[in-house]
Amino acid sequence: MDLFGTAGIRGSAEGRVTPELALSVGRAVAAEVRSAEEGAEGGAAPTAEVVLARDGRVTGPAIAAAMESGLASGGVRVLRAGRLPTPALAHASQGRYGVMLTASHNPPADNGIKLFRDGSEFDREAERAVEERVAGEEPPAAWDEWTETERVDTLGGYLDAVRAYAEGFGDDLDGLRVAVDCGNGMSAPATPTVLRELGAEVVTLNGNVDGHFPGRGSKPTPETLRDLRAFVADANEGVEEPGRPDAGGGGDEGAGDAEGFAFGIGHDGDSDRIVIVDADGDVVHEDTVLALLAERYTRESDAADPVVVTTPNASGRIDERVREAGGRVERVRLGALHEGIAAVRAEAADGDDGIDSDTSVVFAAEPWKHIHVRFGEWIDGVASAAVIARLVAESGLDALREPITERPYRKVSVDCPDAAKPGVMDRLGTTLPDAFPDATVDTDHGVRLEFPDASWTLVRPSGTEPYVRVYAESDEVDELIAGVEAVVEDAVAAVGGDE
């Protein structure tokens, strides 16, 4: 597809995600929604509802106005929810449809469009249908089917739901100190509020919504989070148990107070991503965070076959912890966790009885982004913040990380013309296993090799640049990367010579 990428539609608000495009997509979505609803009803269906929200970007109001016009003139009922975190819009789309205008962690000049149905992102088939209608210049509905829009307030209900869900994990926060860098994004009215309602003492950085992102870049990385990291590290200097309230006693002044911070949180512009910073100000590896949550969900599951869905570039440490907890891992292409959940359920179908009750997807995640399946089938950084805080209150971040083996990790890019990528990947399906005969091979999403010592490597073509990406995690990562890179370079040379 030309319009939709791995995370909806995204790009420059001046040249790609323009009000003109939003109007066209709105009409296409309305037509697709009406078609789907009428098909499900076997005839004319009641007017479908679409919740529309945006993040805090400067270009959001104009694009939202155009999207609203497209949806209303397409004959669906539009519920305007204003500015929301993306997971709050997804929560509001349960039982109906949702459109979120956000470019997530992209620069402030960009914007984007994400589509939801019943709490889950549109799959590729649904996105393709919308794209075809956009290309065909979908006309408005008949004039007497146009609708009026309605303003709704959905944030409070979402925050209440996150708080109630998180209370099922870990321990009460009771004054646990947490630093949250909202990055001037949509976590500002969400994560600090939920954590405070759960009992934490929260200090925020960049805690106002500002579509220019003046405090830092909207993508939370070790570099953009340097102020948060320094803030946490400086506050914890010389503190024996950072962020933990002193039980005190005897009425001493200051009893029950905490010093420093137990940990820090960084979000992106729309609050689907989360980064955790430890008490020393270091970023906890994203796969470690994923692994500790995956293990917890697996251990707490009553299913005979608990499944964690993740992506090919995710660490083998996840497989280790999930296996230890009695579950298994399934992988799906990047940006398609919702499709992976659906695929596991489809494979578990048990004849006329529907889904096999022995198999259950308990968690789905890719680095930085988590789906808490029991809560909802959308990526939710706010829910992650609340659940992780409760787990830290119970046992401490160091104890949560202790069972997880963190091996050295590297990623390199090998030059490869776009036209050669199919031939190169086809060749690597044979040459990589031949070069590493002791590895288990998976070719569903590139070529992934897993070794007996839990090391792994993944080779996949870049979807946007003329490279083949090589990922590896191993105690001997430099040696493994060098060996894999040599095989990839030989494949590129051979295919280039063939052409």
Could you explain the architecture of this structure?
It is a single chain. The chain contains 14 helices and 20 strands. Strands 1, 2, 3, 4, 5, 6 and 7 form a 7-stranded mixed β-sheet that branches. A 5-stranded antiparallel β-sheet has the order 16-20-19-18-17. Helix 5 runs parallel beside helix 11 and helix 8 runs parallel beside helix 9.
Span between termini? 26 Å
What fraction of residues sit in β-strands?
15-25%
Number of strands: 20
Gross morphology is globular
Quickly give the structural class: alpha/beta
Q: Which parts are unreliable, with pLDDT below 50 for 5 consecutive residues or more?
A: 249-255
Tell me the number of helical segments per DSSP (H or I, 4 or more residues long). Answer: 14
Roughly how many Å is the radius of gyration? 24 Å
Could you list some keywords that capture this structure?
single chain, 499 residues, alpha/beta, seven-stranded mixed β-sheet, five-stranded antiparallel β-sheet
Set down the secondary structure blueprint.
Layout: E1 9-12, H1 19-41, E2 49-54, H2 60-73, E3 77-83, H3 86-92, E4 97-101, E5 110-117, E6 120-121, H4 124-135, E7 150-151, H5 155-166, E8 177-181, H6 191-197, E9 201-205, H7 226-236, E10 263-267, E11 274-277, H8 286-300, E12 305-310, H9 316-324, E13 328-331, H10 337-347, E14 359-366, E15 369-371, H11 381-395, H12 397-401, E16 409-415, H13 421-435, E17 440-442, E18 447-450, E19 456-461, E20 467-473, H14 477-498
Parallel strand pairs: 2-3, 2-4, 3-7, 8-9, 8-10, 12-13, 12-14
Antiparallel strand pairs: 1-5, 4-5, 5-6, 10-11, 14-15, 16-20, 17-18, 18-19, 19-20
Helix pairs in contact: 1-2, 1-4, 5-6, 5-11, 8-9, 13-14
